[in-house]
Design goal:
Layout lengths: L2 E4 L2 E8 L12 E4 L22 E4 L18 H14 L5 E6 L1 H12 L4 E7 L11 H24 L7 H12 L3 H12 L14 E6 L7 H10 L3 E6 L6 H4 L1 H15 L3
Parallel strand pairs: 3-4, 3-5, 5-6, 6-7, 7-8
Antiparallel strand pairs: 1-2, 2-4
Length: 269
Amino acid sequence: MPFAATAHGTLHYDIVDQVAPWREARLPILFHHGIGASAGIWAGWRPALTDAYRLVTFDMRGYGRSNIPAEEFKWSLDLLVDDLFAVADAAGLSRFHLVGESIGGTVAMAAVLARPARIATLTVSNGAHLGASIQRADAWRRQLEEGGSKGWSDAFLRDRFHDGALSPERRAWFAAEQEKWSPASILNALGVLIGTDLTPRLADIGCPTLLLHPDASPFIPVAVVADLLKGLPDAELNIFGRSRHGLPFSHAVQCAQALRSFLDSRRAD
């Protein structure tokens, strides 16, 4: 079971490598999930990518098999960026394509700013550069105080998915994964997100960037990601109809196809 070492505990990661040995080698893809999600959400992306790309996923700090900090531990954006590169280093990724969803997208943007030479392309799904734009943050705290992780998760599922967007089996799996998050990890990670504003540095994100966004996220309005698009030197935006904040899971096939088309067109290998 592979783990990446950090100054504050280990992070669990997985590698999927199904590329035929005779195929031309392309740069690998590293995925970063968001609060309430898990590395398993990327499974639906694999069919569109595994023929040509080695894929690396990991449990972000505060969740699953990775380090679960004490409630008083000080989280920061720099810490989460360091976590991302710790996983990349452990998995042997010297240069790679980077995909992040929700807070994972914010961390991914900060990672490009921190070490631009390491990242060939950036993909941000249902994410934002401006944490203060996140809506319903106060409601999260109240839900956790009143109903614990399950109460919060039950409410969050309505923000993630339209009715009927998932099969009962997929919805039950996602709910079970989301309920595993501790209240402290949820609120501490959210605190990092709320305190982030990358607006002044967007012009420094020079790598080709793909933005994938739902048309009805209760947290990040389309107007916010439109502003993000304007601030990036080389970016394109795909808006997905009838989708909410669970876009990379509910629309995994469509998102993966958009990423594959983007990578094929840019051939940043």
